[in-house]
Amino acid sequence: MKQGEAPPKGAWTGAPFGGVKAPEPIVLPDPAARFARAADRLAQLADGHPMEGWLGFLADVADAQRAAAETLSVVGPDAAAIRLAVEAGLPPLAADGFRRDPAWRDGLAALLRRFDDAALPVAAATVIVDLRGRSAAETEALADGFLRGGLDASDAGAAFWIAAALQVYFTRLAAGLEAGELRLLDPRGLCPCCGSTPSAGVVRGSGQTPGARYLYCSLCSTAWNHTRAVCITCGGARTLALRGIDGDDGAAKAETCDECMTYAKLFYDAKAPSLDPYADDFATLALDVMVSEAGWARHAPNPLLLMG
Fold it and tell me: Which domains does the chain have, with CATH numbers?
């Protein structure tokens, strides 16, 4: 494990007389591209990985999310509601309070249909059968429990599919917003669209804003700029360190904070140009285990691993 590593250096680019271009504060998702990119990267990472079967399954899930995102029709908040939320410093798609369109359950049904003929373990197939047998009210209650942190451990299997469907739904909603009408939140570590925590961050190694860090929302897939070398949990900077696994390619690091004893995943695309923050988060669980065993807690769980 290496501590206090300096971030990778890149050449500054931008207007010849204006210096480096300021990072865009908020980047809204392209739903189909977001899930297609994760599916492709998961399939690439699965080959020869110790968790090959699991990553391959997640690649199939991401591809099913892509298909659902391409067909799902959603109705988002009107312009007045968005403006009021932004003026109040609140996310317009607040995950724990936004009134969901029942259409999100159409996305859930589409996801489950993609696995009708899949060779799933008996326990996983049983979860799908059970979830299909639940009423609309019961399914909505599961979604509320997931978004508000109130699910029982017995619903862990169902929570996986609920989370996957809600990612599709909220990503479609976020794509319908206008980035210029949104504002970063205080605290900065929460998504400006839905208020959720990020899955991971990416430090860009090229383009017009090399060296900029973007956090990627775990629910609606929005990316937003966040200051480097500042803890995304508590805002501290005095005790931050970058920790990685000796001998790997250096693309994945854990940014640990001794003030709040949490850590956040950080990826460097200069080290792995094809990386995807969602896919690579799953493929680097060894880093999570190592840092957790050393005493730091992850700042927030990955939604598809929440019950774990």
Answer: 14-25+183-305 (3.90.1670.10), 30-180 (3.90.1670.10)
